[in-house]
Amino acid sequence: MSKPSADKLAGFSGKLTTLQLTAGAATFGLVIAAGAVAAAGPWDSSGQRTAERDRAASQEAWGGADHAGGAPGRAPEAAPSAPSVLAGLGAPAGTAPRPTDRALAEVLDPLLKDPALGPKRSAVVLDAASGKRVYGKNAGDGLTPASTIKIATAVAALSAVGPDHRIATRAVLEPDSSDVVLVGGGDPTLTARKDGRYTDTAASLRRLAADTARSLKSRDIDKIKLSYDTSLYSGPPQHVIGPNENITPVSALMADEGRLDDSSSGPAPRAGDPAAEATKKFAGFLKDEGIKTEPAPDAAPTPTKASNRAESLAKVESPPLSSLVERMLTHSDNDIAEALARQTAVAAKEPASFDGAGRAVRARLQKLDLPLSGAEFADGSGLDRADRASAELLAALLDHAADPGRPELRSVVTGLPVAGFTGTLVDRYPRDSPGTGLVRAKTGTLTGVNSLAGTVVDADGRLLLFAFMTTGTTDPQAAQSALDHMASTVANCGCR
Predict the structure, then answer these.
(1) 307 annotated active-site
(2) Which of 45, 143, 234, 433 is 20 to 30 A distant from 422 in Cα terms?
(3) Judging by DSSP bridges, how do beta strands 223-229 and 179-183 pair with one another?
(4) Marked catalytic residue, from 332, 353, 390, 488
(5) H helix runs in 79-201, sequence order
(6) 328-376, pLDDT tens digit by residue?
(7) Do residues 179 and 225 touch, judged by C-beta distance below 8 A?
(8) Cα 271 vs. chain centroid, distance in angstroms?
(9) For residues 51 and 377, what is the distance between their CA atoms, to the nearest angstrom?
(10) CA Rg, the chain, in Å?
């Protein structure tokens, strides 16, 4: 595992302007100057394998989504308020000069012709202050977006249910019985662990068991029949790519993303029936609290559907949706992405399935008047090659998220990985790259597919939004480098 890039930047030699430093820090709460970074302490650097590096839908059915979290015992930092998100644009907004179309074309056109980018490529750059396009090539072409589709998933979910929405997991008691049902609400971040990444903020299955046991004892019940309810979701749980170490079968009930080891990131063995595994753990925790279960904790529980007369015993709730969006985007988390797509479906009264979620996401984005020509939403994570999106759509999604009039979408911007520092970009930008610390972007990679979409502060301190996509690549590392070079070029360019 490589060292955090904050350490690498101790000898940073990139040409960062004062305006970039000011705009970058004000816009996203980043401290990029080497001395300030050192004083601020270590940055979180997961260094785990990512979906983009390990070809999440490769022929070997391998994956590589980075599911890492923050340092153990450390809660995530709060997202800045909507005004702070755009503070880097100046006062009044947009006083830094805007690059011209011609000047950007002069520097980006040659880079877009790099053979490493394959036969199909498209690009868009927008000015964040005005929303005006300042560069575009094949902008409306619908290409396979890979994990950049998660930007669409995030915008749809936040718009549909709001940034403060929390996903509940409940235990209920059927009337006139000792039948207890563990009811899944669709929270993939529910944890059965006592400590480790995210356990301080995630909903705890242990706490749910303790609270449930307390409620049962208050009713003089110490022996129950336990089952589980995943009826919130419908359709096939298995993703079209088949069994994969980077995505669990999609279920309304799971703990720790269905991982069968103690990892919290990278590839891992996954439960074939995550709901049953979570229920077994719940039974074990109940036993520790003095509640006997039938079946026993080591036996297979049975699925059921809780009646509408069932009485609530206890519940736990996920972090707010804004936090889930940030975690999903920073670490390209496929399990959270599929869960958020289904939350969108539930809000739209669509079936919470792959098909229903796709319809709900499309409908929600259509309400936002986004350019959906050629778009297809086959899943929420981008692992499905049937997904389609244009660079124009990805840039427009980011433009909406950066709009101070839409503060509910701000976690889409704050969740983007920071070049050279966090998430899936932690090791993608060398210390002397002009994009290090100034590019924030969602990566996307499948075999033959590479994409990058995000924000960048240019040399004049102007905040720009970009989306670069390519299909038919044969060397993923070369393609990634070419896309990173394009983003860094924009950072290094006043382009007037």
Answers:
(1) no
(2) 143
(3) parallel
(4) 332
(5) 82-85, 101-112, 149-161
(6) 999 999 999 999 999 999 999 999 999 999 999 999 999 999 999 999 9
(7) yes
(8) 21
(9) 19
(10) 23
pLDDT band at 151 (very low <50, low <70, confident <90, very high): very high
Let me know if 5 is a catalytic residue: no
The set of residues, in sequence order, having a beta carbon less than 8 Å from that of 290 and lying 6+ positions away, is 213, 217, 222
Q: Hey, is 111 helix, strand or coil? A: helix
> Going by C-beta distance under 8 Å and a sequence separation of 6 or more, which residues neighbour residue 18?
none
Active-site residue, 312 included: no
Catalytic residue, chosen from 150, 318, 353, 451, is 150
- Give start and end residues of each alpha helix (H) in 294-416: 321-331, 334-347, 354-367, 391-401, 410-414
CA atoms within 13 A on the CB side of 238: 8
Query: Where do runs of H (alpha helix) occur along 268-311?
Result: 274-288
Say how far apart CA 14 and CA 34 lie, in whole Å.
11
Residue entry with tokens 């839409």: 406
Task: Give Cβ neighbours of residue 154 (< 8 Å, ≥ 6 apart).
Answer: 325, 328, 329, 340, 411, 412, 415
Q: How far apart are CA 127 and CA 112, in angstroms?
A: 19
pLDDT recorded at residue 473: 96
Confidence band (pLDDT; 50, 70, 90) for 86? Answer: very low
Neighbour tally for 307: CB within 10 Å: 12
pLDDT tens digit sequence for 46-76: 322 333 333 333 333 333 333 334 444 444 4
* From 5, 45, 122, 147, active-site residue: 147
293 token code pair: 């279960």
- Joined together, the tokens standing for residue 139 give 């902008």
3-state secondary structure of 368: coil
How many Å apart are CA 208 and CA 214, to the nearest integer? Answer: 10
In the block, residue with structure tokens 């004062």: 18
